[in-house]
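Quick check before the chapter quiz. The format below is the same one you will see on the exam, so make sure you can read both the input and the output lines.
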Amino acid sequence: MSPHQLALRTILRARPRSVVASLMIAASLSVLDLFAGHIASVRAQLEYQAVFGERLGHLAIFRSGTAHDGRPQSKAFGPAEAVRVKRIVAASAGVAAVMPQMSVSGIASTGKRSALFFGEGIGADVASPEVPELPGKLDPARRNGIALGSGQARSLGVSSGSKLTLTGVPPDAAPVPLDAQVVDVFSTEGLSSGARPLLMPFEMAQSLLYTERTERFVVFLSNPAELEERRMALLSALRVDGIDAEIRSWKDQSVAFGQQRSASDLAFDSVAGMVFAVIAATVAFTISMNALERRREVATLRALGMRTSSVFLMFSMEALWLAAIGIAISLVASGLIAWVVNRAALSYATQHALGRTPMLVELDFNRMLMAVVTVLAVTLMAALLPSFKAARLGIAESMAR
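Here is the expected output.
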């Protein structure tokens, strides 16, 4: 029999030690798969929060330099240029909706209470299957209607229907107070510190800043998986039309996502390191004990003409078979556990979620594939030394023991 067949025959005998080793590899790999799935689920929630909850959109179009110098008025789109940008983007493939936006800050006053506000002037929401209902509803019939976050509403002591005065901070003109009426109070639970707690019509924000310019356009895509492809296509179309613009994705704009990505990558690397260490130790111990217990069998095979390289290959293949069986079990177990958890729809609340959301485990197949390849490599390396020692044992010495 060849070394491969002998290795498979040994594994199929299902010795307790080999079975336990395969189950240990499967359990360790399942933990890693489910942890990667949890990270993927949290990132999906963060994407939904940033794109729709904070109204960042999948892409945001700025005048070149606006996103970096912190002076939106100095490099915003002029009226004619804004019309061209919106026309080009709206006509582009894969775009579900495009809306103008303008950041505005100032003082809000009810006459009895005053507070600083950091708001957003937004264009009319577009009804589209690809764009779910966004937080903060404005009334198109009320040009001075605003939506307040629950925290801002409490600090001012107002509710839906209340009236107040907003005073913006124009960069090149005297501030002009404007009367406003609260038409909606929305929850800001779970939103990051970058979310604006005051929303107003886009034209009202322009009036507060005494400008006709447009700071940016927010773009929602029909297929978010094509984000980079659509970004490059839009950038090319704008440049062909002579518009000097830059396009940033929601990942570039979301502070919460950047922080969570760094933390989750570190956590995953730590867990992966521990998992691979456990698998390496399990494989090394199992192959070492198998070689020790079967030294007479190996000596007999050597006496019958098996070469040392074949003995080395036999034990190395045993390790790979252990890993392969463990990987197969882990894939089935991970899929089953994820299915059970998703069907149970356990609810939990986190600081990154918009209220109560189902705890879904999204299997990250890219990371799962990387884990499988890494496990095979770690298994092979862990089996090298025990296999080499088993192959180097003398025939007479092994038979005498």
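If your answer matched, good. The two ends are 25 Å apart (CA to CA).
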